[in-house]
Amino acid sequence: MSLTLSEFSLIDDYIATSATSRADVCVGIGDDCAVVEVPPGKSLAVSMDTLVAGRHFIEAVDAVSLGHKALAVNLSDLAAMGAEPAWATLSLTMPEANLRWIRDFMQGFFAVADRFGVQLVGGDTTRGPLSITVQIHGFVDPRKMMRRDGANPGDLIYVTGSLGDAGLALRLQQSGKLDIVRHQQLLRRLDYPTPRVTEGMQLASIATSAIDLSDGLIGDLGHIVQQSHCGATIELQRLPCSAAVKQVIAESSEWSLPLSSGDDYELCFTIPADNQQQLQTLAATLDSPLTRIGAIEQQPGIRCVNAEGAIVDVESGYDHFK
């Protein structure tokens, strides 16, 4: 369904309809700028991601899932800093004002926003090739925020959840072997990622560094070791993987799915060895498992070792310009 309507009608009827209304928003959608208040003692954490048709998603993708993912991937960045979500802005560039598509997209977007208490406070709409840009804002305690440059030799490396499911779903999709019924759980990990917001906020008090896994474990952990001026060893047998991913590894003897396929949106973080007891206590309160996968070392670079201790060569993570 594609009907003619003005930009302002589109905004009023479909975009400015969030159920979430925050007291710290003084002026929201409808004016030249949004005006918001940051709580005393907190710093403002800001991140932005753009999703482009043909690069990050196929144009035929379900609009509800795309709306979900557009906000979820930004929330994942806040989670990596240990920040509490607050506000978002949304820029939509579309070839045409397809009302059904806009309705479904905003349904997915607002479902995530309402779940995490995020109010949409502004943005932009324009005509052009399909792309979506979201800017997310949140609050973080500057004394506890997790950064990429805080890891130290001797720290233990952990990840939330499991790795490789989204990459496997994409691989099956691109090869034409995706079975919507059989691979439903894999596809959901790709299209409806869960940002580990609660985990990030809880981990901020005990972790030394963190990053969200958008481009693959090797590539993203590489940012931590590079900015922390250290290295790491990953124990491949410790990687948390679903039965489907484990089957691929067993059949192919290659580890690219959990190590470099990307789109997991889990958290990779480091803690001092002395904080393991605190982490175990915290883990009991969280929905996603926390798995130790290796350790930070003085020697630069990332080494992956198998069960026998032998080093295994792996590919690096996703890079937009490779």
Molecular structure report:
By secondary structure, this protein is an alpha+beta fold. Helix content is 33%, strand content 24%. It folds into two domains: 134 residues, 60s Ribosomal Protein L30, Chain: A (2-Layer Sandwich); 150 residues, Phosphoribosyl-aminoimidazole Synthetase, Chain A, domain 2 (Alpha-Beta Complex). Helix 2 packs parallel to helix 3, helix 2 packs parallel to helix 6 and helix 4 packs across helix 5.
Named CATH topology of the largest domain: Phosphoribosyl-aminoimidazole Synthetase, Chain A, domain 2
Number of strands: 12
- Give the total of domains: 2
What's the CATH first level of the largest domain? Alpha Beta
Q: At CATH's second level, what is the architecture of the largest domain?
A: Alpha-Beta Complex
List the helices and strands in order. Answer: HEEEHEHEEEHHHEHEHHEHEE
CATH homologous superfamily of the largest domain?
PurM-like C-terminal domain
Give a quick account of the main beta sheet: strands, pairing sense, barrel closure. 6 strands, mixed
Overall average pLDDT: 91
Class by SSE composition: alpha+beta
